[in-house]
Amino acid sequence: MVDGLAAPVAIDLDKWDAWRPDEVARILVGVRAPWYVAAGWAIDLFLGEGQRREHGDLEIAVPRDRFAEVAAALADYDLFVPDGDLGVQLLWPYAWAEEALKEHHQTWVRERGGGAWRLDVFREPHDGDTWICRRDESIRLPYDEVVAHTVDGIPYARPDINLLFKAKHAHQEKDAGDFDAVLPRLEPSRRRWLADALARVHPGHAWIERLG
C-alpha cells in the first residue's frame, strides 16, 4: 500500500459473520446521526417476531455527510469501499479511495487483521434532516418519518421504504417473501406511499396491483 492510495482487497464472501442488530446498536450507542437498520433485518424488526429467515449480512444506513460519526464508532475495525462492480474487490483504507467513495454508497466493515466481515454501511444521500431516495431523488422524507424503533430502541427503516429497494429483486425468494410477510401489516397510508414510489422507480411493477 502506497501512502495516499487505497489498496485492492479480494472479497471472500465465506468470511461473512454479520453482527445482529442489537450488537451493532450497542457499538453505535453514542452516534447521534440518524442511522438505522436496513434491508432484510429491518423487515424482521418491524414484524417483531424474531428472526424469520437467514440473513447473509447486516446493513445499516446513515446520512452520507454524517458517516464520519459511524466510522469513528468503528475505529477498531477496518472499513472498505467497493472498487468497480461489487463482487470483484474492495479498496482499503476507505478514506483513501476518494473516487470509489463518490461512486458507491456501500462500506464494508471487517474485524481488524483479516477477520470476519461484520457490517455493510450505506452512505445515503440527504439534504440536512431530509432523507433522499438514491433510486429517485424526487422521493424525499424527513428522517423522523423514515426511522422507527423497536421496543428495545433499535432504529430501523420503515417497511415500505425497505420494500421499495427490494422491489428491484422481487424475483428472488427472500425479497418476495419479505413483501408477502409485510403486506398484511402495512397501513393504508404506507401502501399508498409504496405504490406511488414504485410507480416512479419501477413503473408497472407487479407489487403495485397487490398494494390495492
Which key phrases capture this entry?
12 strands, Beta Polymerase, domain 2, three-stranded antiparallel β-sheet, 2 domains, globular, alpha+beta, 9 helices, 212 residues, seven-stranded mixed β-sheet
Describe this structure in words.
With 212 residues, the chain is of the alpha+beta class. It has two domains: 7-157, Beta Polymerase, domain 2 (2-Layer Sandwich), CATH 3.30.460; 160-212, no CATH class. The chain contains nine helices and twelve strands. It has helices spanning 21-27, 39-47, 67-73, 98-103, 143-146, 159-166, 173-182, 188-201, 206-210, and strands spanning 7-10, 36-38, 59-63, 77-83, 89-92, 106-111, 117-124, 126-127, 130-132, 140-142, 147-149, 155-157. The strands form three sheets. It has a seven-stranded mixed sheet with strand order 1-5-4-6-7-3-2. Helix 2 packs antiparallel against helix 6 (159-166), helix 2 runs parallel beside helix 7 (173-182) and helix 6 runs parallel beside helix 8 (188-201). The radius of gyration is 17 Å and the shape is globular.
